[in-house]
Specification:
single chain, 18 helices, elongated
């Protein structure tokens, strides 16, 4: 994410500088304000021309030809599970046609954002800075609402960064010299926010689940659709008689200035790539949007200083400089969890969490087997615990006990209870804090792994399937023999995962170098695993 934000910051600077110099030069040549509609066609054509280059060079165009992958739905915020019937599991294969329609609609929404963003720098009779700040603040306010609607967990760091980012926007608005908001600027702001609302909703439905293949497919289709839709919309406006667009598609394209306008589109194409990849991160929009907005606010200030020295444009105000301090605070808040995780105490890195559905059979079996296996080794063993993702409300209301067949399987395997007897086990739900505090989270199925990643995306590198060979089936409702067979398989997987030496307290997966097969330990698997 840091590299993506840096790329967005670096690419936003030439976009802002080129667009502002273009508008400033055209205004001086015309002796007055320039209609921004004149610039839009050349900018849209510039982006349309360079878009296929990126898709061909990167090779991502192939993802558009792949069938859609199932996207697991995240659990409800705060670790509470939704009502029965909305279990966060693999929804199964999907038809390509509805997914293509949603991805192309997302491209249409993105085209509205592209057009209104460029247009926002060109208004006359209103404060350009005021319009841009309202755009950024509107998306910041929208992000937690979208996360709440999609049931996505928002960590404390994201709320903190959101608060600092909004404060930066409000402080910057306090330094605006002109608060006039003409009707065209108001309409542009409304279209911009509608475009982002639709885009975020569609992105949540078909991507943003940490599946590399799914995210790249969405990115490719949206990316290919957006500039095409923008050119078609602008062309329709020109045919309908909009004078600025007509001039932009005819007389303006024959001028040398049109090349500079096309360069604006090329610059936007680069920042569009970084911005979309930031939003596609599996974390909540409340986390991703401040990362995006902070990069754009900082790049805007850098561009303002550069334009002052190059073209004599006004310097940033004191309010904008104070806003920059708050932006730095927001960046620090976003970075705090990763820094704390790297420098945190060893005790937090020595916990192992086993996860299954209802936390009454498979995960407690793994917990007690792991304790038994670690008890006979030298050195300090990790701390073992278990939790469940099952949506059955009774499991949490009545704190369900461990299955009698599962307890019998432990006795048959000769597993010693240790300091806590299995009869005292009570089911508990998996929470984001438990995932963040665990050294490793081991799931019984691939679908459960995807649900855990949706609940705590920051734990991605530490979430694995317990058995890399495949899913461990649920023995619930089956006879004692099925539970014993399940316990034996879990014991085999636990022994492989927690093989000696345990003296450092760091569990590791089996295989050469302690790495999982592709699709298990890979933090961005290309395909979803079913359970």
């Amino acid at each position: 994410m840091a590299w993506l934000a840096l790329g967005y910051f670096a690419s936003y600077i030439p976009y802002v500088m080129l667009l502002k110099i273009l508008v400033h030069t055209m205004s001086d040549a015309a002796g007055g304000p320039v209609d921004g509609m004149v610039v839009l066609p050349a900018a849209a054509l510039g982006q349309l021309a360079v878009m296929p280059v990126f898709l061909l060079v990167s090779g991502w165009w192939r993802y558009a030809l792949r069938p859609p992958e199932p996207v697991p739905r995240p659990p409800a915020p705060g670790g509470r599970q939704p009502a029965h019937g909305s279990r966060p599991r693999d929804p199964g294969p999907r038809s390509a046609a509805p997914t293509y329609r949603r991805e192309m609609l997302a491209g249409l929404s993105a085209s509205l954002i592209i057009g209104t963003t460029t247009l926002g720098f060109t208004f006359s009779g209103t404060s350009v800075l005021f319009v841009l700040l309202l755009m950024r603040g509107g998306v910041l306010v929208m992000s937690p609402l979208m996360d709440r609607a999609r049931g996505r967990h928002v960590p404390r760091a994201a709320w903190t960064a959101l608060a600092f980012s909004l404060a930066a926007v409000l402080v910057a608005i306090g330094g605006v010299r002109d608060y006039r908001l003409a009707l065209p600027a108001l309409l542009c702001l409304c279209v911009y926010l509608v475009g982002y609302t639709a885009r975020f909703d569609l992105m949540s439905r078909v991507a943003k689940a940490g599946l590399a293949g799914t995210d790249r497919r969405y990115f490719t289709v949206e990316h290919a659709t957006a500039p095409v839709c923008l050119v078609l919309l602008l062309g329709a406006g020109a045919l309908a008689g909009q004078p600025g667009l007509r001039t932009g598609f005819t007389d303006f394209l024959a001028t040398p200035t049109a090349w500079a306008a096309a360069g604006v589109g090329v610059a936007y194409e680069v920042l569009f790539v970084f911005g979309t990849l930031i939003y596609l991160d599996r974390r909540a929009f409340t986390w991703c949007v401040p990362a995006n907005r902070c990069a754009s606010l900082m790049s805007g200030l850098v561009a303002a200083y550069a334009l002052h020295h190059l073209a004599g444009l006004p310097l940033p105000t004191d309010a904008e400089l104070l806003a920059l301090v708050m932006v730095v605070a927001a960046v620090a808040a976003l970075s705090a969890p990763a820094l704390a995780q790297r420098r945190g105490p060893v005790a937090h890195r020595r916990r192992v969490v086993f996860v299954c559905g209802g936390n009454t059979s498979r995960s407690p079996l793994a917990e007690y087997i792991a304790r038994h296996e670690a008890a006979g080794r030298d050195g300090r063993a990790p701390r073992f615990t278990s939790a469940g993702l099952d949506v059955e409300a009774t499991a949490w209301r009545h704190r369900a006990r461990m299955s009698p067949h599962a307890r019998a399987a432990l006795r048959d395997l000769g597993v010693r209870p240790g300091w806590r007897h299995p009869r005292y086990h009570r089911a508990r739900p998996l929470t984001p804090d438990l995932c963040r505090g665990g050294a490793v989270v081991y799931c019984m199925t691939g679908a459960q792994r995807e649900a855990v990643l949706a609940l705590a995306p920051e734990a991605t590198p530490r979430v694995h399937c317990l058995d890399p060979r495949g899913d461990i089936p649920n023995p619930a409702g089956k006879p004692a023999d099925a539970h014993l067979e399940c316990a034996r398989r879990i014991r085999q997987a636990v022994r492989a995962r927690l093989r000696p030496p345990l003296c450092d307290g760091t569990p590791h997966p089996p295989g050469n170098g302690g790495s999982d097969p592709p699709g298990d330990g890979d933090p961005h698997p290309g395909t979803a695993r079913t359970g």
